[in-house]
Amino acid sequence: MTGTQNKIIKKYKREIRQFFPIFTKNEKRFFNDICSTVSDYTESHTDFTLETLIDEIGEPKDIVSRYLLDMDGEILRKSLFRTKFVRFALGIIILLTVTIGLFKIRADYLTFIEGRKSYIHQELIETIILEESDTPPEETNQ
């Protein structure tokens, strides 16, 4: 098999994988079956191209749509709902994480500004020398 044919196989498998809206264990099993079919076909036909692969096995979107049409509607609905819920929950978690991070960065920046304002840039030491002055003697009246 040439490098070009390996790229064709990888591209074909990647397209099939991307068309699945959900990817549970049943879809993984189906995907592995399709991959083994592709491998069997490419081993028996060494001079295949993308067009011959599509003609023999099918368009990736058609393969996935046939699989989804054959799937029980209730199972598909539950799986799609679960996937939608997980994506929504992950979105909320990411949004909260970013928001908390921004507040933390702002608080750290304000602390930095406050610390910079209170930093002593120059220290001034003033020495005062006190000398004793001559005081006039006290007068004594006697």
Straight-line N-to-C gap: 133 Å
Major β-sheet profile? none
Number of helices: 5
- The percent of residues in helical segments reads over 70%
The number of E-state strands comes to 0
Rg over CA atoms:
40 Å
Q: Determine the mean pLDDT.
A: 88
Estimated structural class = mainly alpha
- SSE succession: HHHHH
Percent of residues in β-strands: under 5%
Overall geometry: rod-shaped
Descriptive notes:
The chain has helices spanning 3-18, 25-44, 50-57, 60-70, 73-117. With 142 residues, the protein is mainly α. The radius of gyration is 40 Å and the shape is rod-shaped. It starts with a helix and ends in a 25-residue tail after the last helix. The relative contact order is 0.08. The mean pLDDT is 88.
Topology (SSEs and partners):
Layout (H helix, E strand, L loop, with lengths): L2 H16 L6 H20 L5 H8 L2 H11 L2 H45 L25
